[in-house]
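Follow-up to my earlier ticket, as requested here are the two runs.
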Amino acid sequence: MKNLLTICLLFCCSLAMGQVQFKSGKNGFTNFLAENTIYPQFSKDNCVQGTVNVSFKLNNQGKVYFSKVSKGILSDLDQEALRLVRLSSGKWQVPAGYDTTVSIVAPVNFVLSGYNCEGKTSRDIQDAIRSYQAEEGLTNSVINFYKNIDQAKPGQEVQIIGIKNQLGIDDEYLDDRIKMGLKKIKQGDKQGACEDFNFVKYMGSKKADDYLTKYCK
């Protein structure tokens, strides 16, 4: 039997929340989070859980015009929480005379249940987090290389390919990243999808080029 993944996303906020509401009702935003969350693969595999605080502002049309992570856990969870808040843009009702400079703070709580996390110790999880952060630096070096490939030195790409192999970034990995982007397109998250497609591009692959042309111009 496959393990079941339960994602609990709790939403609380600052005093400003009393002045605005989600268009679909009292529990609308909580339901929206549960329906649209794509739990990042690394954090899911390594039982990384916790709360990401996202600060955001709404304009008079209920659209998110500013957002940032004010307290994070790990960049993959941070970016998912930020993506969800941005995806909620236009789904808010604001009253007449609403102060659009006020920040709303949304704590998004990521919890895994029934995913064998009981067998993971806190040390296991911290070791995984440190490994992830180290790999982020290597991933960024690959991205920077392909972004500036015109300035590459002879033979440098061989080293970059070695780093990609070390990170396990192969065709299967890139295909999964494209699938994630297409899922975001279905959710209406064009920005998030284009970030995934561009990631594939800056791994030196042309696999996502057609999607970049179709969705990201």
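Run two:
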Amino acid sequence: MAAVLREGDGFLPGTDLAAVSRPIFRDATVGGEALFAERFWPDGTPRLSAYEYQGLLLSPCHQDGREGGLGCDDCHAMHGDRPDMQVRRDRAGAKACTSCHVLEDLSSGTRHGGHGETVTCQGCHTPRITYGLLEGMIGHRIAVPRPQAWIGRHDQPDACTQCHVDRSRTWAAEALPRLGFPDPGPLPPPAPDEAWGSRVQLDLVGGDPLQRVLAIHALTRPEVPVAVALRRAWITDALDDEYPAVRWFAWRALRQLAQPEQAARVDAYDPHADPERRVPAADALRAAFGGGPFSPEQREALEARRERTVLWIGE
């Protein structure tokens, strides 16, 4: 990495890029310092967009897939007719997976928990735990959800509770055998504060800025099996966030979830206004929608636990 920064990467068009350049991963160092670790989750999955290739390289579909493994151009086309995300027409939605995997197996009621059409392949296997372009984006690391691996931890979202926003990881892990998945075995003990609320609720108040943004994004998705009124109330917890981007996400989410007659009240809140204007508007929204699930003492403890890491924008 240091040599590339000093001398350039040495790549010439038509030559093998991999021979002169290596992708940046969580453990990449410059001068002995791991400068890029905060751009990845603890398991190496990218936290930020622009690292989609690294996510792909970590995927079993790339490492063990047929014909040399899954590559970027298996799903994307640089010069196709779909500039938005550049997804090939024959790879849109589930077709990205069924070009290799057998559809009958994927839709079987005895596999994949019988979710059927409720969720997409990407919803479980490439969950939206990557931040970029003011959105929660799929991470491009294809993996099997393992909520049990993150019980008792607060440092990475998981696929199951990003959809089941009112549930804990312990609940998700215990549900696996009932849904036809392998028994995860003995589960780690949950952290004490995991009894206070769901994983997304905890991330919304106690996570780092990126976790808080992704929690809000999860609460806005149409497939979430929780009443909109409840989700609106929970999101109001973020209206006084110290981070402007989190407040903006909360404001946008409430605009998306508000009833038409509530739109004017939401628009009266400006996430970038001075506290003198912003706080009364936030209080009015909490009065209208209800507040979050935590007691003042619990909220104070969660906020004290926050990792005040800046949102690295690596694009």
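The only thing I checked on run two: The longest helix spans residues 275-289. Let me know what else you need.
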